[in-house]
Design goal:
single chain, alpha/beta, 13 strands, BirA Bifunctional Protein, domain 2, eight-stranded mixed β-sheet
């Protein structure tokens, strides 16, 4: 199995195993209004939470932004960070050191595309109904401490679950992610290069959880995965204000809450941006 990392910016990475079905995604500019304060760092927001984007495409976007940020940082001109929010088509991703033993299938006959990436952590699943947040952040302007950054990403999710759904989530000592009881709702895996962090977190909102049965999620055998919708369907977490049959509304509400809590935890202000695919569909344009 070959390690696929550092793909060229004009190249859409090839998965370790390509599922025969091919898909395309339209990219639209989304509207979000926030108040700007000069004392807070700016963060460019690419809000695609209604879009289902192929993993390779989003991976290339991250790479393009990271390369741009590195060049700006070298000139002391790195004045903003970035946050991409989206959904993915069904895909399995592995970290740099992920173990094949956590795959419950033959890699030559994977049920979905399978990628080995440069992030940390073990294998996980991404799919529709899961909100994926990719912050591209220069930690020099926050705190040059990876543990602090991981705990901060967890805090974003914990606050969103509590403030919006009255779901009391927590951390588990020695593990990364956000949990409700023994169920993991949010997985986190990052890569940091020259203190610029990318990759990020994935939160199960209305996700079909059955694809997780084909793997040992995050390499943890004695715990399960959960979703916001699953918890809200449970009488212990029921919130009367939400129509549990309206997945789009639940996704939109969760996205708004995550954006707000991200803004508060990292003390930033968002500036709306859009991502545009080139005519070749193999490169990405960062539109202002």
């Amino acid at each position: 199995m070959n390690l696929l990392c550092n793909p060229a910016l004009t190249y859409v990475p090839t998965p370790l195993i390509q599922n025969p079905s091919k898909r395309t995604s339209k990219i639209h500019s989304c509207q979000l209004i926030s108040t700007t304060h000069k004392t807070r760092r700016r963060c460019d927001l690419y809000d695609l939470h209604k879009e289902v984007v192929p993993y390779a495409e989003a991976w290339s976007w991250q790479k393009a932004i990271v390369t741009e940020r590195r060049a700006l940082s070298d000139r002391n001109e790195d004045f903003s960070d970035s946050l991409i929010i989206l959904q993915h088509h069904p895909v399995y991703t592995m970290g740099t050191g992920s173990c094949d033993n956590y795959l419950n299938f033959d890699v030559s006959n994977a049920p979905f595309d399978l990628y080995r990436t440069e992030r940390g952590g073990e294998v996980t699943y991404h799919g529709p109904g899961q909100l994926v947040m990719y912050p591209i952040i220069n930690l020099r302007y926050y705190k040059m401490d990876l543990h602090w950054y991981l705990r901060s990403l967890e805090e974003v999710v914990i606050r969103a679950l509590s403030s919006t759904f009255s779901i009391e989530a927590s951390r588990v000592e020695g593990l990364t992610g956000v949990w409700v009881g023994d169920a993991k709702l949010a997985a986190i895996g990052i890569k940091v290069s020259k203190w610029i962090a990318y990759h990020g977190l994935a939160l199960n909102v209305t996700t079909d959880l059955t694809p997780f049965d084909q793997i040992v999620p995050c390499g943890i055998r004695d715990r399960q995965v959960g979703s916001i919708k699953g918890l809200l369907n449970d009488n212990r977490h029921r919130v009367e204000d939400y129509d549990l049959n309206d997945d789009q509304d639940l996704m939109h509400t969760t996205c708004k809450s995550l954006v707000k809590e991200f803004c508060d935890v990292f003390q930033i202000d968002f500036c709306q941006k859009s991502l545009q695919r080139s005519a070749t569909q193999n490169s990405v344009g960062l539109a202002s």
